[in-house]
Amino acid sequence: MPECARPPRRCGGVIEAKNQTQAQIRTQTGLPAEAVSSMPALYLSHGAPPLVDDPVWPAQLAAWADSLPRPRAVLMVSAHWESAPLTLGTTEPGVPLVYDFGGFHPRYYQVRYPAPTAPWLARLVRALMRDTETVAEQPRRGLDHGAYVPLTVMYPDADVPVLQMSLPTLDPERLLELGRRLRPLREEGVLVIGSGFTTHGLPFLTDWRPEANAPGWSADFDAWVADALDRGAVDELADFRHRAPGMPYAHPTVEHFAPLFVTLGLATSPDAGTKNVIDGYWMGLSKRSVEAA
């Protein structure tokens, strides 16, 4: 559906919010009025904390980050933070990470990622959500592992400001609309990342080696997703619970697939398709990760 074929109030709201976004940056945030690169939107499979020890995956993530323009900031939408209404994480320095996992080596609980905060970005998100979403804040909520694990690989110097935003719903249509509302951020140099896992059937894994073969349900779901993404078949993807092979084993709960729809909503054209950047499997789970232009 063309962007402005949606109800006029929504389409006009995006245009109005975009103008406010630029004004916020130029006159209220104190940021220099410098030229910034338009950013793509990403969906990545983030992996557990041991991702950083994998012999292949970190190099793929690092190369991806190196291929992108330098972002002014990152807005992270992680599968590990579901909270309604839409909630923004910390904008205060020094807030510790959220070690939202158990049973790993103690060194994974000693990781630090002191990225700068982005209170100006929080104000912009609020402006873009005006009249459509209630926005709450948890200023002492740090980055969870779905946010900081990939960032430690992509921007290891922790020198890019980061803001995390909750998933306020798991409904694909609402998340697509949320992504549409966030589109103006791309023109302000903000890299929006949906962080999940293309398949996440942990209860059904029997081989926990990183190099394990993909179970049939994981391979089938991944192939279906790859085809739908290539064709820009967003409506089919949104109906994945009923259409996708491998369900419900690929996603017995769907929070790891949900961030994809924020990313797809951010795409400049609904049917443009995406560029596949990473594929393959880790412990038999699909690590497919894509870039929306």
List strands and helices in order, with pairings.
Elements: H1 8-28, E1 41-45, H2 57-67, E2 73-82, E3 86-88, H3 119-128, E4 135-137, H4 145-154, E5 162-167, H5 172-182, E6 190-196, H6 216-231, H7 234-238, H8 240-243, H9 259-266, E7 275-278, E8 281-282, E9 285-286, E10 289-292
Parallel strand pairs: 1-6, 2-5, 2-6, 3-4
Antiparallel strand pairs: 1-10, 7-10, 8-9
Helix pairs in contact: 1-3, 5-9
Overall tally of structural domains: 1
What is the molecular shape?
Answer: globular
Number of helices: 9
Query: Main β-sheet: number of strands, strand sense, barrel status?
Result: 6 strands, mixed
Helix content: 25-40%
Give me the CATH architecture, please. 3-Layer(aba) Sandwich
The CATH topology assignment is Protocatechuate 4,5-dioxygenase, Chain B
Rounded to the nearest angstrom, the radius of gyration is 18 Å
Low-confidence stretches: 1-17
Per CATH, the class reads Alpha Beta
- SSE order, one letter for each helix or strand: HEHEEHEHEHEHHHHEEEE
Strand order of the largest sheet: 5-2-6-1-10-7
- End-to-end Cα distance, whole Å, is 17 Å
Name the CATH superfamily classification.
LigB-like
The total beta strand count reads 10
Summarize it:
The radius of gyration is 18 Å and the shape is globular. The chain has nine helices and ten strands. It starts with 7 loop residues before the first helix and ends with a strand.
Could you describe the 3D structure shown?
With 293 residues, the protein is an alpha/beta fold. The protein has one domain (37-292): LigB-like (Protocatechuate 4,5-dioxygenase, Chain B). 33% of the residues lie in helices and 16% in strands. The chain has nine helices and ten strands. A hairpin with a 2-residue loop joins β8 (281-282) and β9 (285-286). The longest helix is centred in the first third of the chain and has 21 residues, at 8-28.
